């Protein structure tokens, strides 16, 4: 099979599209899903992930619950006003009940077990706060050898959304984000707001999804609150598929154009808390002003029309 993938998620409307993309792609071996607090509290994100997998006919995929709060400072706030209080525009209850029981091992243990059992490198796509991934890397450093890439939806080079400076996933747990982005050594791709906003879709695109059949209609039905939130931001009726953009890169490396930069995360308590500091100065390594540490790949551009077609074709083609 193709890409071996684990998704760490906090569903969330855009997470629902990301899960749809992964589960409906025949070249993806989705090993497991772990959940984290974020868009809504952990109890909701976990229930949503399980119901979505049931909707997509993937009860074979184990789901384990992870962190219910940030690593250090418990000051993150859910985004129910964006996604609806249940995370899915108030329609979570319309999804089928999950038949598979929640995996009792918990997120970090499930991650370790899946990685240890894999016979080839695994891609991890964290599309919520990075708390579970930070815990994994801190408690099980030897597991790094089994991870091929980490493709993260988070951060912003030129903008934030939770604050002027900070994107929601990074802002929700800056200390965890810094542990993964700055202190890690696994090949990493950061998919920030700058590229996810370029890949926004309008209601015509969503209409094509709804017209594709019952599952497409069920997925589109989860979007009203989300579309209402994003319409004034985008300037047209539509939405931003943040997490699906990262998952697309996870399953088709190179669909996004990346450049390698030093990245840091602001963990102070001023107005820039949670900001991702992407150093685009192109300094020489000998320059005294250069930022020490590693570089990571940051996605900044793509063929937007081709990308939208890819996501729609993958989801509809599997329905």
TrEMBL record:
EC number: 3.2.-.-
Domain Inosine/uridine-preferring nucleoside hydrolase, chain residue ranges per copy: 5-307
Record-level GO cellular component terms: cytosol
GO molecular function, one term: purine nucleosidase activity
Keyword Hydrolase: yes
UniProt cross-references to Pfam families, sorted A to Z: IU_nuc_hydro
GO biological process terms, semicolon-separated: purine nucleoside catabolic process
Classification via Gene3D superfamilies: Ribonucleoside hydrolase-like
Keywords: Glycosidase, Hydrolase
SUPFAM superfamilies with a match to the protein in the record: Nucleoside hydrolase (SSF53590)
Protein name: Pyrimidine-specific ribonucleoside hydrolase
């Amino acid at each position: 099979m193709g890409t071996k993938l684990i998704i760490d998620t906090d569903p969330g409307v855009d997470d629902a599209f990301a899960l749809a993309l992964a589960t409906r792609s025949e070249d993806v071996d989705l090993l497991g899903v772990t959940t984290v607090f974020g868009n809504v509290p952990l109890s909701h994100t976990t229930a949503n992930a399980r119901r979505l997998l049931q909707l997509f006919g993937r009860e074979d995929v184990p789901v384990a619950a992870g962190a219910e709060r940030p690593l250090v400072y418990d000051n993150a706030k859910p985004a129910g006003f964006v996604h609806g209080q249940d995370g899915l525009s108030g329609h979570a209850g319309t999804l089928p009940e999950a038949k598979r029981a929640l995996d009792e091992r918990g997120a970090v243990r499930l991650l370790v077990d899946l990685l240890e059992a894999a016979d080839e490198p695994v891609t991890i796509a964290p599309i919520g706060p990075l708390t579970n991934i930070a815990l994994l890397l801190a408690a099980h450093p030897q597991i790094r050898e089994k991870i091929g890439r980490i493709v993260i939806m988070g951060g912003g080079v030129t903008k934030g959304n939770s604050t002027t400076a900070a994107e929601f996933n990074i802002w929700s747990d800056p200390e965890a984000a810094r542990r993964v982005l700055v202190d890690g050594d696994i090949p990493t791709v950061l998919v920030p707001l700058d590229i996810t906003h370029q890949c926004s879709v309008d209601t015509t695109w969503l209409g094509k999804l709804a017209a594709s059949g019952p599952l497409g209609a069920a997925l589109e039905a989860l979007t009203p609150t989300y579309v209402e939130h994003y319409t004034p931001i985008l300037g047209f009726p539509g939405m931003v598929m943040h997490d699906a953009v990262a998952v697309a890169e996870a399953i088709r490396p190179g669909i996004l154009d990346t450049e390698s930069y030093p990245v840091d995360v602001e963990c102070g308590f001023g107005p820039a808390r949670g900001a991702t500091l992407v150093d685009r100065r192109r300094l020489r390594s000998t320059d005294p002003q250069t930022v020490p540490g590693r570089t990571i790949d940051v996605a900044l551009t793509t063929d937007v029309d081709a990308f939208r077609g890819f996501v729609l074709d993958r989801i509809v083609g599997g329905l």
